[in-house]
Design brief:
single chain, about 170 residues, mainly alpha, Arp2/3 complex 21 kDa subunit ARPC3, 6 helices, about 0% strand, globular
Length: about 170
């Protein structure tokens, strides 16, 4: 029960920060930071896929409702949650079999940044593809995906570095 309440608190904080702060920042009309992805990235390793997808869908839906976007965050976050364990498995060090929360303490900086970058790239590609709903503007799509991925990754690295120092 305590774990659920901690997850719920983290959920509400990241949804609020995304909607009220980062949802209003669009650098050069392309880049938007999606820091709420930190919730999906930091879910415990052995959380079931269904549990991950339900949390991700709910978080994406909350961002969609309060950010006035038509379900694209919910869809992209759910796709990320579905693929997260496959992506995470590429970066788990040998000999680690226990349940853990992915972060720089377990994965180290290089592996964590790679895990986060691939995850954010997947999310951004799905999000902007659904938002544009066409391949007819590939340059716009790629600029939006790349810039949002880099901006989101930058904020997640900053948050993770502060989080690491607190432990």
């Amino acid at each position: 029960m305590r774990n659920f309440l901690n997850q719920l608190k983290y959920f509400v904080i990241l949804a609020a920060v995304q909607v009220f702060l980062f949802g209003n920042i669009h650098l050069f009309g392309y880049a938007t930071a999606y820091v709420y992805l930190l919730f999906i990235l930091k879910m415990p390793r052995f959380a079931t896929r269904n549990e991950q997808m339900i949390w991700a869908f709910a978080l994406g839906l909350a961002v969609d409702i309060f950010g006035n976007t038509p379900g694209v965050n919910a869809a992209a976050a759910t796709v990320l949650a579905f693929m997260r364990n496959y992506i995470l498995a590429m970066f788990i060090p040998n000999g680690i079999n226990e349940d853990f929360i992915p972060g720089t303490r377990v994965l180290r900086w290089g592996a964590y940044i790679s895990y986060a970058a691939i995850s954010i790239l997947l999310f951004s590609f799905v999000l902007f593809l659904l938002e544009l709903f066409t391949f007819s503007m590939p340059v716009h799509l790629m600029i939006s995906v790349a810039s949002s991925t880099l901006l989101t990754l930058l904020f997640i690295i900053v948050i993770e570095s502060f989080n690491r120092q607190g432990r």
